[in-house]
Design brief:
The chain is an alpha+beta fold. About 40% of the residues lie in helices and about 15% in strands. Strand 6 and strand 7 form a beta hairpin.
């Protein structure tokens, strides 16, 4: 449903530029953004786990991206009683360049189609191992969020992940909601808020 395209990369980078976020160059910049609170840790728990290969130092993202991950993980768990797996979150330019050497499909580290992982806006959620029902649920959830301008998703077939850039507008939208999508993300079927306190 969400094929990776040049246009999608442009949309993702336009959001990075709109928010005036830096592309994180190296570990020193990464650690400084963590220390300032500009990057927040994604917390594993009942609804969410990490690919064990993901370096703990890169299990971080922007605060609104963290909130999105928590929300979709809770909704997915409520529906399927299974965890969502985070395979990737923030990356540095140094890491992205290394990734490009091993993965021809990885986005560049620079330019107007650079990976949005470099700004901490984006997570990759594992698609491999999901049933058709689970994949369709994810697609419907993301279709709704994309339609209202809150995410820019791609389904990466080579890595079998949902690559999801979360707009900075998600924070404002989330604060305006007394409810979050639970079963099917269509307005008529949204149920009561179950976000954790």
């Amino acid at each position: 449903m969400f094929r990776p395209t040049h246009e999608s990369l442009l949309v993702q980078n336009a959001e990075v530029d709109r928010l005036e976020l830096p592309r994180i160059q190296d570990d020193d910049e990464l650690e400084a953004l963590k220390a300032s609170g500009a990057l927040q840790p994604i917390i594993a728990g009942e609804t969410l786990r990490f690919d064990p290969r993901l370096d703990p130092s890169r299990r971080f993202c922007r605060p609104w991206t963290r909130d999105f991950v928590q929300d979709i993980a809770q909704a997915y768990y409520n529906r399927f009683h299974q965890q969502i797996q985070v395979n990737s979150a923030v990356r540095t330019v140094k890491v992205q360049k290394k990734l490009r050497r091993h993965n021809r499909n990885a986005a560049p580290a620079e330019g107007d189609t650079a990976s949005s992982h470099l700004a901490g806006l984006t997570v990759d959620l594992q698609r491999r191992g999901m049933s058709q029902e689970q994949i369709h649920w994810m697609e419907h959830y993301l279709f709704y969020m994309k339609a209202i301008g809150l995410v820019e998703p791609e389904e990466e077939r080579h890595q079998w992940v949902f690559h999801i850039m979360v707009s900075g507008r998600y924070a404002e939208w989330r604060e305006s909601q007394d409810i979050v999508p639970m079963e099917r993300p269509e307005p008529a079927t949204i149920t009561a808020d179950s976000r954790p306190e």
